[in-house]
Structure formats: C-alpha cells, structure tokens
Amino acid sequence: MNKESQLLRIGVLGCGPIAQFAHFDACRKARNAELYAICDVAEDLCSRMAAIHEPVVTYADYDEMLADPNVDAVIIAVSDQFHISLCMKAIAANKHVLVEKPLGVTVEESADLVQHLKNRQSHPVLQVGNNRRFDPGVMFARNFIQNDIGGLIALKAWYCDSTYRYTMTDNLQPIPIQSAQARRPAGNPKADRQRYFMLTHGSHLVDMARFLGGEIEAVSARINTQYNSYCWFIEAEFSNGALGHLELTIPVHGDFEEGFRIYGEHGSVNGRLYLPWYHKASEVECFSDKDRQYHRPLGEDSYTYKLQIESFADCIMKGTPQVGASAVDGATAVRAMVAIARSVETGTRIRLADVTGGV
What we know:
The chain is of the alpha/beta class.
C-alpha cells in the first residue's frame, strides 16, 4: 500500500479487451487505488497501454511483477483457462487478487483454489469480478430483500444479449488494440459457443440469482438452439425454499435485457439493468407492505468496475466486509453452471453438490 496517499497499488495482468475497456480506467479513477503496474507478454501491446494509462512500471513477465514488493494486489484479466493457475501464483506471492469471472472452468480446480486459501496461515483477499453486484440498484434491491421483504417465495432472473450489442457498445468503448504476440489458450475456447456463452454470460446470471436469492441447491435445465441463438430455461431450487426461473438467451433479436423479479413475504422487487458500459444505475422498484409504497434509488455513482475496485481496496486496507464475490462464491457459481450443463445433457434434475467436471 502507498502509505503516503493511502492507495492500494494494483498490477493488472493482461492488456486485452476487458482491461482496455474497464480495468485500466477503473483503477485510475478509483478513490483508493493506483494503477501501479501493467503486465503482458505482448510487449508491443503493453507499451501502447502504458503510453495511454501511465502506470509506474510495466512488466513482460508475471513472476517479475509478483516479485515487486510495491505491488499490493493484482487484477487477472486474461483467458478463463488461465485464471486458477495465475491466482495460485499470486496467492503464493502474498498478493491480493481480483480475478475476472468465471473463477475457473471446472468444479475441481475451483474447489482446489478455495481449499488452498483455507489452508494458508495468511489470507489474501480474493474477489471474483462479478461487477453487477456493485450496481446501486442491485445493492438497493439486496438490502431491501435482506431487511424488509421477509421470506422469499420466488425469483425470476434473465440475461439476454442482443444482436445489436456491438452497434451500441462500439460507440461507448475505446477502439480495442490487439497484438500478434498475445498468449492464448490451446485451441479456440470460443468455438464451442454453448460452453463459451454459459461461462461468459451465465456466470453473471448465476451470481445475480445467488446474490439476491441465496444458495441454489438444484437445477433442472433445457436448451433450445435455433436460428443461431442459444436459449436456456432453468428451474432453480433455493435452499431457503424459494423457487426460481432463470433465462439465458444469447442473442435476442432486440435490445439487451437483464433483470429480475422477486416475490417475498412482505413485498416484491422489480429490476432492469442496462449494459454496464453506459455507467447507468439499474431501474429498481421495491414494494413494501409496511407503508404500501414503492421505493427506488436515484442519482447514484454507477461505474461498477470502479466501484468493485474501491470495495476490494476497502476490504484490504480497512477490513470492511467483502461485498464482491469471494472465492467460495466463484467456485459455487462454477458448480451451478456445470449443474446446468449436466441437466441439459441428461434431462434430469441435478443437485449442485453432486456435480464434477466442467461446463
């Protein structure tokens, strides 16, 4: 930590799209963090990002960045298949970690990471990059659910990417810069679209359902693959007795849609989220029997990538409770996605506790 300025010094591993679109800028704008280092094996890309974002130092070697005593924490913003091994290295170097979602790609490797953290005498903070948790509307809904709604009856949540997504986001994001020197996983992880969409987008949907509805015990899922779209309908059973319906459709021929509807003992919640690149708070209305009125937030800071870094830094430097997804949350989300995949394959109800393997 930079003691003079009370800033968490962060090293970002990976100069690919998510770092360019989100993490570099978020580190620079966070009130309690500093973009101290950038690291990528593609030296041409690393140099260009350094010229734009002006870190204190750059590295072409991850081990060298981890050996830098001035680096307090790392953001791992590389391909999913590398997440676990790179997290393990950072933990071994006593660095705090914010790793992009999903935490891993198999149940076993994710569980191994959780156990590794539990076995350590020192406990670095590990947070998974489920940035939607930091949307002010989502936080408002969660607080209402925890304090006012009573017992839960049902939760519906959906995530529908749009055929026009890049028509919208290309105007919001910087032009991505690529490099032929970039390190990529073996094969092409995007070739299996069904698996890729579940890991990339399903991780958001599952985390949202758990963040608002609680632990999921079992799922029953079906998929429809027609007209170049993938549509999952998922029945979810929550440990608190609530029933759930989750929908993931990639893409829809219409606008991007993400949202939730929750029914409880003393109220209900409706939420609609926007593409995160707008930095616009979700529209959330919470109805309470207590005063027979709807309540909703307005005018909040909604740069969720920045807010997740600020919360991460506060957790490390001030000991505040961890709001972001923990290693356990990340591993459980992987387990839920694998359960959904197994249910689609077998046509049966699958308990999360019973699954093994990957999506």
